[in-house]
């Protein structure tokens, strides 16, 4: 497939969908056959078996492995904060980026626990996107620029990519993207995000309905222009770049899943190499996962972002591959009944 | 509390319930206060916060940690297999024990992945318990002996105990214990276990109903005499010994949870220091967790036993403590809004 870095319009990006590499069916079949030979009842490892076969298809081998895991956290700021949708000041985005850099955030501990390297990429934090109730949050060029930054952050040889985000106000952007991609009332997609109360939640829904009046025609990748933001576009770029390199992706919770809703709405094949690490406590996430045909690996009542749920799921993915590669077969172990 | 090793009747064991050490409320409160000070919105780490506070209460410190994690897999054989409830021969129990010892089973890989030491304890595999449709599966002395073996297997200084089991036919024993403890029709507690088809499932339900006619009066710890088996009694013994030492316990799936149903039925306080690692794909487990007021950490559609789900949950518990101990506070990180 053509590289994202060579493209100059979102229509070009949309056209990539037809050129995407696909999971290798032979490797999937061979991995599945291996699972059936291991010393356990068929399917007794449930989701762990699915994860091993998933990795096999993208890595094109019946023995997939993780030699390096890369977590990327993209950070951006949002013009919609001018509407008062968030109780925290936008400075917190940069403060949390500093916290990521000094190792004090949840994602730092979770990456250490699951053996992932962590890079943080901030995108023009001093220049928030536009207020999407007044105009499109981003121009086409801004979206493309952020996408390319996201793509460039993907290491060429990583075995698996863990994606996360940080951006004060971006739970409102997430709900707007979800509503734009899948319809329904804004109130069905809105949760309390970070620290909003019931009144804050109602305001978020109102602000999103205001935006939808302005951007009623936005669809597919153009949703990124309508609602933003930069970290969402960067996540989309990283997902596309990973696909070109056959690197499986673990998406985080509500905001990260909503960030790629424009890719799904454009052509759902864009997300075949992506799994969702954790179902957020944000109520819109269950609805979104259903619409995007993704079953989360974990459901731990978290609602943090930062890639926290994806990093936790990496631990499960590692365990799945340990079983897949390390277990004895019935023949090797001389166990009856295989 | 009195040590299990000094007791000679199940009535003595039952009486331990009144002497159990309890979670330390001050340590729980201090751990909760620390969670509120960390650089994240309140409750944003969801279940991870609960796990950290749970560990704090049992370890009596606001900074709980895991210096060593011990997995114990108890193996036993069951007379009920004479009724044809399992498609695998009973020799598979010993064959799987050998597989555990040589490192080829799922639990070996999962313990390596989550950093647990693994001990396997087989209990008289050549002498299955009695067929519980003909007589009690075990005598009181046999139950006590197995309990004491379980208790003796708990290392004095481990930080957390991961419990699992192996025993051909023991999904039938699990359903019988669950039905005996909580009532309802056997068919509501029976699943396909390891490789049974619909007819096998119906036979399991019939066999359990036959047993219940004989053991209608069995309740509490006496359920272990009625239905067995040795690995179930050993798990109960390990749970009690862990409690005496304030060691938190991660139970595995359906069979391991059902193994401690007699403790719960006797006095539910026996299980205050236990969490359940994984909700099994066996349909009875959701019902059992509900009855025993336990929310599983993971739901990954597994149905293997061996302690597999508990070992996976240990990884989540470790991540929870990494966050609890490693994250910066709002003050330390100079982040606004804490």
Written account of the structure:
2 copies of one chain form a homodimer. By secondary structure, the first copy, chain A, is an alpha/beta fold. Chain A has a single domain (68-319), classed as Rossmann fold (3-Layer(aba) Sandwich). Chain A has 15 helices and 5 strands. Chain A has helices at residues 10-15, 25-37, 47-59, 91-102, 106-114, 140-152, 170-182, 198-214, 222-227, 230-244, 254-259, 261-266, 283-291, 308-326, 330-333; strands spanning 69-75, 117-122, 160-166, 249-251, 274-276. Chain A has a 5-stranded parallel beta sheet with strand order 2-1-3-4-5, with helices on both faces. The longest helix of chain A is centred in the last third of the chain and has 19 residues, at 308-326. Chain A is globular, with a radius of gyration of 20 Å. In chain A, 62% of the residues are buried.
Lateral strand order in the biggest sheet of chain A = 2-1-3-4-5
Task: Report the top-level CATH class of chain A.
Answer: Alpha Beta
> Mind telling me the C-alpha Rg of chain A?
20 Å
Largest interface: A-B, 59 and 59 residues
Helix proportion range of chain A: 40-55%
- Stretches of chain A where pLDDT is under 50 for at least 5 consecutive residues are none
Task: Give the CA-CA distance, first to last residue of chain A.
Answer: 42 Å
